[in-house]
Amino acid sequence: MTTSHHAPPDKYQDIRDAVRALCAEFPDAYHRQADAQRAYPEAFVAALTKAGWMAALIPQEYGGSGLGLTEASVIMEEINRSGGNSGACHGQMYNMGTLLRHGSRAQKELYLPRIARGEWRLQSMGVTEPGTGTDTTKIKTSAVKKGDRYLVNGQKVWISRVQHSDWMILLARTTPLAEVARKSEGMSIFMVDLRQAEKSGMTVRPIPNMVNHETNELFFENLEIPAENLIGQEGQGFRYILDGLNAERTLIAAECIGDGYWFIDRITRYAKERNVFGRPIGQNQGVQFPIAQAYIELEAANLMRWQACALFDAQQSCGAQANMAKYLAAKASWEAANVCLQYHGGFGFACEYDVERKFRETRLYQVAPISTNLIYAYVAEHVLGLPRSF
Ligand SMILES: Cc1cc2nc3c(=O)[nH]c(=O)nc-3n(C[C@H](O)[C@H](O)[C@H](O)COP(=O)(O)OP(=O)(O)OC[C@H]3O[C@@H](n4cnc5c(N)ncnc54)[C@H](O)[C@@H]3O)c2cc1C
């Protein structure tokens, strides 16, 4: 369904039309069934990859389309706006940024063209650990160099798409915390060949969860990684991960914006059609106003998303805008979800309306990939200069 309201076509209309046409081949029933079966939307992701959309940010010299973050964000927005969920595949779009920025020429030539062609999926990034949570510098997973290999031991949690990825970027400590001058030093990132690792050194335990999202606990016991799989310099991995966060946050913001429009479209249509007390429910201001309010807040959040994209594409610092866009968009999509569910009445709870599914999906973005409190902390400390709290 295309949107019935607002905004004249923007300059990304060609991208929108093309992504919408592809998404239209995967209607609500497809995503609903995948959700009910907790099945990976393989055909959907394969079609997006084959059409080149997942390679938007890979430079042309490596076989991608070399688009900016703005265009990439439109792709993500449209996927979510179509009723799908970019969470199944967004890692493929942005995880490669770490390789692009910090990988050697040889690594880029090895991985990027294959990722662009969809032969290899680099959908996973292993950072979070059960005993550490958001306090990433305390991670306990260690990688110890032994000749031409690193030996990895430890544990990760909530690592997404491992079963539908060929490669994972792994953050591990290469120098113990007690031996580094700054806690952000001494961590490194590696490319992990997942199928190889599953054969020896890594155990995957899926985590059943609230949404149709493949995510896992990982256990490492003497996992061997060839030394050439280290990305960039040893000890600098935490900084490399941080470098990728602005793009990730901005793309997630665009996904939330897509969700928000989906909720507003659905409830606007429903409120016009559903007759109770002899009139459409949408004729009651008690119903109209919350929908209008959610729409206004969504539009406002979208402005911050465009600003974050523009700064990023102009290679200007955009940490504040990327974080604020993610915060505002996740909040706006959640409020739109609530309104959409509320004014569908009982039907909001019926799976066949898809509202409850999207409601669950958009709720995640208050928690992952970064929780709301951590955005407040970023803005308080880095934008407002308030004293550091952790
Ligand atoms: C479905 C899903 C997929 C995920 N995929 C991945 C993935 O692919 N790779 C990966 O590495 N991680 C992944 N994660 C992990 C995700 O990034 C974390 O769950 C998230 O960052 C929050 O960390 P935590 O769960 O450890 O919460 P905790 O750090 O334990 O925090 C719990 C709560 O307390 C709050 N809190 C903590 N400290 C403070 C403080 N000082 N001040 C104020 N509030 C505080 C937090 O904001 C949060 O709300 C995923 C998580 C989910 C749920």
Automatic annotation (TrEMBL):
One of its GO terms (molecular function) is acyl-CoA dehydrogenase activity. Keywords: FAD, Flavoprotein, Oxidoreductase. PROSITE patterns: ACYL_COA_DH_2. Pfam families: Acyl-CoA_dh_1, Acyl-CoA_dh_M, Acyl-CoA_dh_N. It comes from the Bacteria. The keyword Nucleotide-binding does not apply. Belongs to the acyl-CoA dehydrogenase family. This is Acyl-CoA dehydrogenase domain protein. It comes from Verminephrobacter eiseniae (strain EF01-2).
